[in-house]
Every structure is written in C-alpha cells, then in structure tokens.
UniProtKB/TrEMBL annotation:
Organismal lineage: Eukaryota, Metazoa, Chordata, Craniata, Vertebrata
The organism's place on the tree of life at top rank: Eukaryota
Taxonomic source organism: Urocitellus parryii
Name of the protein described by the UniProt record: HP20 protein
C-alpha cells in the first residue's frame, strides 16, 4: 500500500499475512 493511500491493498495484505504464517 502506498503511503498516500490509507486503505491497504488487498493483495499486499495477503502477501504480508502469507509471509507471516510461513515465518511463524
């Protein structure tokens, strides 16, 4: 998500969450 945009990008959230699950 860009700094100018307040709402997060769905795809970016999925990638972040997926990485979080993998590293856990």
């Amino acid at each position: 998500a860009d700094v100018e945009t307040e709402e997060p990008n769905q795809a970016e959230v999925i990638i972040y969450f997926s990485g979080f699950l993998i590293t856990s």
